[in-house]
Amino acid sequence: MEIIRCGWCEKDDLYRKYHDEEWGKPVYDDDTIFEFLVLESFQAGLSWYTILNKRENFRKAFEDFNYRKIAEYNEDKIEELMQNAGIIRNRMKISATIGNAQKFLEIQKEFGTFSTYIWNFVGGKPIVNQPKTLKEVPATSEISDALAKDLKIRGFKFLGSTVIYAHMQATGMVCDHLVDCHCK
């Protein structure tokens, strides 16, 4: 029996595995939420496939996405990361990751967890859409607009509405699996 998936993930096994095991599944732990914020911010202007292929390199380069450690990075660490051919070597995105880690910690102090903060935007539970085709899947929403705006006010960088909507999809805040997808 053929497994039906969302058409965007049929490029190869890496994409299919990500789609089947992660994409659209609700994530409530801060460590994974931060990982996806980093990956999504680096994805801005690039394909998600490029980032997914470099994910393990990012994990090693950013110490398993340990936001407490990343918040302490200095210019020497930025230079080290700029020499790492396994990641996207964009100084502005690397610097933004450090600043975002610092802001992430501030939100944790304010809300107890970053998860509490971010999930408040969707009332604490996933929004389940019913798209029949990929064309029906939006790139942004009113919620991603509001969340991106709030993050910007709080000092986050490289997390505009499109990036945030992709983050919401990745972490299951919104489920955009097509109605005939086996993951629906």
Automatic annotation (TrEMBL):
Zn(2+) binds at C6, H19, H177, C181. The keyword Metal-binding applies. One of its GO terms (biological process) is base-excision repair. The keyword DNA repair applies. Signal peptide: none annotated. It catalyses: Hydrolysis of alkylated DNA, releasing 3-methyladenine. Keywords: DNA damage, DNA repair, Hydrolase, Metal-binding, Zinc. Its EC number is 3.2.2.20. GO terms for molecular function: DNA-3-methyladenine glycosylase activity; metal ion binding. PANTHER family: DNA-3-METHYLADENINE GLYCOSYLASE 1, DNA-3-METHYLADENINE GLYCOSYLASE I. NCBIfam families: tag. Hydrolysis of the deoxyribose N-glycosidic bond to excise 3-methyladenine from the damaged DNA polymer formed by alkylation lesions. This is DNA-3-methyladenine glycosylase I.
